[in-house]
């Protein structure tokens, strides 16, 4: 007889131990997955907070640069934005980095406005967007002057944003052409070149007259783009 007789319950015991071990592993995996999901939620919330803080700093900086000039400190911008100085310095290690971010953010705002105008169906929406672009040029003249002095070209620094804005202008120009509210012979490249030239003129105007010059140039540009029968 074999001395190693098998107990009838031995197989069941092994199966129960294996099941218990599997259950422990499943619970451990479940706990790990819950922790991972919690960490993912926390990471998302932290990233969302960081984005909100960055946007708040950008909006505040844009407003203060337009109202008070470029002399305002990063710490004062942080105070006005309701964030700590470390938050500003973490996102924007220098004044120049903040200038560039403000200028790019303004382009993206104009892109969003162009998208909204494209959805209205208004054949004259091109003129609305161009007016807004000119107003933006006046509001951000000091920032753009600082970037120009530092030999920054926004088309090189933010090619996607610049291309998106050109695309929005092109869409609205096509609609204006179809409706006959703009000269038939004008192209989007010519429109963008005219606006760029106007921006240069605004930058050379004094802070006290930049908005006045912007308004005057806007009227000239819009009148020049309209066909003679609509002037």
UniProtKB/TrEMBL annotation:
Any single Pfam family the record assigns to this protein: TetR_N
Region annotation (Disordered) ranges: 1-48
Keyword Disulfide bond: no
Signal peptide: none
Record feature DNA-binding region, as residue ranges: 73-92
Keywords in alphabetical order: DNA-binding, Transcription, Transcription regulation
InterPro entries tied to this protein: DNA-bd_HTH_TetR-type_CS, Homeodomain-like_sf, HTH-type_TetR-like_transc_reg, HTH_TetR, Tet_transcr_reg_TetR-rel_C_sf, TetR_SbtR-like_C
Domain spans labelled HTH tetR-type: 51-110
Molecular-function GO terms, alphabetical: DNA-binding transcription factor activity; transcription cis-regulatory region binding
Superkingdom field: Bacteria
Protein name: TetR family transcriptional regulator
Source organism of this protein record: Nonomuraea fuscirosea
């Amino acid at each position: 007889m074999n001395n190693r007789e098998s107990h009838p319950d031995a197989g069941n015991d092994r199966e129960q131990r294996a099941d218990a071990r599997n259950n422990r592993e499943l619970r451990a995996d479940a706990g790990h997955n819950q922790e991972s999901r919690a960490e993912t939620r926390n990471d998302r919330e932290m990233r969302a907070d960081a984005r909100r803080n960055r946007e708040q700093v950008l909006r505040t900086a844009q407003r203060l640069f337009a109202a008070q000039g470029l002399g305002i400190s990063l710490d004062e911008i942080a105070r006005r934005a309701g964030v700590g100085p470390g938050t500003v310095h973490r996102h924007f290690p220098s004044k120049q980095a903040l200038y560039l971010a403000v200028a790019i953010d303004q382009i993206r705002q104009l892109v969003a406005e162009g998208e909204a105008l494209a959805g209205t169906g208004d054949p004259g929406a091109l003129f609305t967007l161009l007016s807004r672009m000119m107003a933006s040029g006046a509001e951000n003249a000091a920032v753009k002057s600082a970037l120009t002095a530092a030999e920054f070209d926004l088309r090189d620094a933010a090619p996607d944003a610049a291309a998106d804005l050109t695309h929005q202008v092109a869409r609205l120009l096509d609609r204006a052409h179809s409706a006959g509210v703009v000269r038939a012979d004008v192209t989007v490249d010519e429109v963008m070149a005219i606006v760029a030239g106007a921006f240069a003129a605004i930058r050379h105007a004094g802070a006290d007259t930049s908005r006045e010059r912007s308004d005057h140039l806007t009227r000239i540009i819009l009148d020049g783009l309209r066909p003679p029968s609509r002037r």
